[in-house]
Amino acid sequence: MFSNRRVKIFFYILVSLVFIYSINEDIFYFYDIYTFNREFSPAVDSKGDYILTPQVILKKGLYTFYFDVVTESIGNGYFVIDSNDEIILMDEFLPRVKEEVVQLEILDTSKQVRIGVSYDPAGGTFLFKKVYIESDFIISRDSILRHFVVSLFLAILFMLLGWRIFYSASWFDRFGRLSSPANERILIFLVAISVITTYPYFYNKIYLRTDDYMFHLLRVEGIKVGLENGMFPVRMNPFFLEGYGYGDGLFYPNLTMYFPAVLRLLGFYPITAYKIFVILLNFLSIGCFYLAVSRISKSRYSGLIGAVFYAFASHRLIEILYRCGMGEAQSFLFTPIVILGLYEIFNDHEDKWYILAIGVIGLAWSHLLSLVLAFIAVAIFLLFRIKDILQNKKILAALIKAGLIVIGFCASFYFAMAEQLLTTKTTANILVSTISIRGRAGMSVIPGSHPFAAAPDWLRFNDPNMGLPLLLLPLVFLSLKKNSKNRNQQLAIFFLISGLVAVFVSTEWFPWYLFSWIANRLQFAWRVLIIAVPLLSLSAGLISEILIPQKFRKPALYLLVAISALSVVPLYHSAIQLRLVMDNPLHLESLRVSGGEYMPVGSDYKFIDKNKDTVLSNDPTLQVLTHDRKPLRFSFEFKTETLPPDGLRFEIPLLYYTGYVVEYEAPGKDPVEIRPYLGDHGFVAVDLQNEKEGRITAFYQTTLVQRLGDWITLLTLIGCAAYGLRAGWKKRALRRAVIKA
To answer: How many of the other CB atoms lie within 10 Å of CB of 21?
Structure first.
C-alpha cells in the first residue's frame, strides 16, 4: 500500500500539472483589438480611403476579422494593405449590419499589414467602432517563450511549496532561521499587504491608465529594442518618436527599467511587464522598509507596524495608482535604505557604510529628483552631526567610502548626462532656470489639495497627500511619558519631528520663493513627501513597541491594517472608476514623450509625425533615390542637378544629440566623416560642399566621455565583487578554523 504522504504528493503533483496545463491552453491563440469609435460625416470628411491602424505584424496562419460598424447605406467598406501598399483584402460593409466577419490567410512567414476604411459621404454618417482580429492557431515566438517562462516559474514555485509542505524538516535544515515559523508568518503578512495595495494590477486583460504609464512603457520598449540590436547600455531610445531616437536614457536613469525590458524580450506584453514590475517593486519597497525599521528598533513587531503605515501611505499609492511616477515609486524602495545606512554609521557600525552606498546608488539610478531631495536631507543631517564626524575618524572614513563607491557606480550615467548638458541644447535645460517665480512661489509648485489629508471626493483626481493614518500619528505622541530615556522613544520623536518638517516644506507655507531654482527643478513641492513618508512611518513603527502592550499587539496590528485599508478606499474607488481600461492588448504610441523635456531645441513631435522618413534640404531639386532606417541609424542616396551657392544642407530624420556620426560616400570612393550639428528642426544636420550625388549615413556612437564613465563603473563593480569574494572567503576560513579548534 502507498503511504499517505505519497498519495498526497501524487495528487499535489497532479493538481500542479493540471494548473500549468490550463495556463498553456492559449499558447497558439492570437488576438488583437483596435478601438477607434471614429465617426465619418459628410460635413467633415470627404470621399476616400482612410488608414486607421499602424502596421500590424501577422504570422503565417488563418485570421478572422470582426469589424464593428454602424452604416445605413452602401458605399462604405474596409481594406487591408501590406507593407507595399498593395490591397490584400477589400469589400463593402452591408447596410445595417453591425458586425462584419471576414477571413484572411497569411501564406508568408509573416506580413506587415494596415487596416483602413473607405468612406462615401453620399451614404450619410458612418461609425467605425473597432476591429477585432483572432486566430486559433498561430505559432509565435513571443507566445511560446512567454508560456515557457510562466510554466517554469510556476513549476519552481510548486516545487518549493511541495518541499515546504511535505519535507519540512529538510526545508528547515536548508534555510535555517529564514524558515522559522515567525519569519514565515512575517513573509506571508508582507506579501498579503503587498497584494492588497496593488490588487488592481492583478486584473487580467485590463489595466489602470495612469498619468505617465505610456511614457514609461516606451522607455522600457526602447531598452528592449536597443538590447535586440546589440546596444548596451541603452542611452538613446530607438523606439520613441517613430524611430527618430530620444535621449531619455541620457537624462533619466533607466537601470531598473532593464527588468521589465527583459520581460518584454521574453515575450510578455508591455502592460503585463509593467504590472509585474509594479507588483514586485511594491513588495520590495514594503519588505525593505520592514527590514529597516526592525533593524533600527530591534523589534520585528515595530517593523510590521511601520510597514503597514508605509504600505498604505496615500502619497506612495498615488504614485502607483494615479501618476505612474516610476521614479518616485522606486525612491520608496531606496530611501529607507539610505536612512538605515546613516543609522548604522552613526551608531557604532561604521563597517556597514555599504548600506548607505546601496541606497544612494539605487536613488541615483532610478530618479534624479529623489536623489536631489535625499542629498539635501542627508546634507542637513550631516551638518547637525558635524561634531561627531570630525571627532570620530571611523564615521568620516565610512562616509568617504560610501561617497567614492557611489561616484564609481554612477559614473556610467552621470558622465554621459553631464556631457549632453554641456554640449546639447534641449527643450528643458536643468542647469538654467526657465520659469520666473514671483511672490509666493509655493503656490505654483504644489497641488490643489492640501497634502495633510486624503482627498475626500470619491470621483475626483487625487492629489498627492499624506493620508489619514500618518495625519493622526502626531496625536499618539501626546500619550508618551515626558523625559523618558527609552532609546526607541527618542528615535521616534526625532523621526517624527524630521518628518513633520518635511511635510511643512511640501506645503505652500514654505517660502519657496527663496529657493526658486530647486523649486523649478522639483516642479511640485509635494515631491518632498518622498522624504516625509518614510520618516513618519519609521516613527510610527518605533513608538508602537512602547505604547502597545504585549497581549494587544496582534489585534492592534490587524486593526491598523483594517483602518489603513479603509482610509484608502476612496483612492482605490476613484482609480478604478476613472482609470480602469478594458481595451486589451495595449498598443504603444511612440509619440507620447510626456513633456518632451529631453528633445533638442527646435524639434516638435507633431512635425516628426508628418515628416516620417523625409530628408530635409535647402535644395528644392534634390532627389532622394533610396533610404534605409534602422535603430539609431539612417542612410540615404541622393542626387541633384544644381548646387545652392552655400552648398548642400541636409537635415536627417534623427533627433540630434552629441554622439552622432555622419559619413559621406561619393560614388566609387571610401566613406569620409563629416561633422554633424543641431538643425533648425532639432534633427541631425550636415553641410556638403561641391557634391551632387552620393550616400550619407548617420548613426549614433558611444562617445569618449561615455566610455570613460562605463570603464569607471565597470572597474568599480569588479573591485567591489573581488572585495566581497575575498571577505567571504576570509569569513568561511575563520569559521572552519573555529570549528576545528
So the answer is: 10
